[in-house]
Hints:
five-stranded parallel β-sheet, binds S-adenosyl-L-homocysteine, Alpha/beta knot, single chain, 2 domains, 17% strand, alpha/beta, two-stranded antiparallel sheet, 6 helices
Amino acid sequence: MRIDIITIFPEIFSPLDTSIVKRARSRGIIELHLWNLRDFSRDKHKKVDDAPYGGGKGMVLACEPIFLAVEHVKKFNSDSLTILTSPQGEIFTQRKAEELSKSKGLIIICGHYEGVDERVKTIVDYEISIGDYVLTGGELPAMVIVDCIVRLLPGVLPEEAPKFDSFSDCLLDWPCYTRPENFRGMKVPGVLLSGNHERIKEWRLKQATERTKQRRPDLYARYLKKKGGKDASENSSD
Ligand code: SAH
């Protein structure tokens, strides 16, 4: 998958050069390109923002450099979907990440200051928010979106891993433990040491459903609906 990010701060994307995303890049599963919006400014000072019409606070990223940048980047992959990061967008969820992970490419526009000129919305396929709060720029949201999508791409994680993550089946993940068996008196649940895979599976499902019921009733309601009203862990033992 080709991912192009348009930003006025290309230097802050080092998290995408670390760990699992770095590995996905070196394996050629994703190709990541950072584009400096200022390189698409026709202004001699490379200015990309201006004061808002109607007056008021802050600066607004202008249409022209963003249009030019998107048009340029599209030449490398005309099938790419264009995403505008915005607190006014559709909330990013695991489901959205799964949907976007199937696309051929993504172009992500990072806003800044007061945001972008409204007319930019005519060239985007999605406006995405990473939550109901306002950040200084779209760079962190772009990294969140990329990180989440990349780990879903085939060959990035062990095949089955993302299937059992929180949200994948409308459930939060089950509790995890690693060595030692007893840490300061806190013991690993016996069932996990039993070697009985059927019992372990049942225990995990039960933990996941109980946890979801307690912490995220909204998600649990969706889980029940998906399962046709029946809690799949109802008959499982501890
Ligand atoms: N005045 C705007 C906020 C601008 S914040 C408003 O109230 O809607 C500046 C930029 O940061 C935005 O253009 C967007 O690209 C990014 N941004 C801020 N919060 C975000 C969020 N929750 N999700 C996605 N992008 C966000």
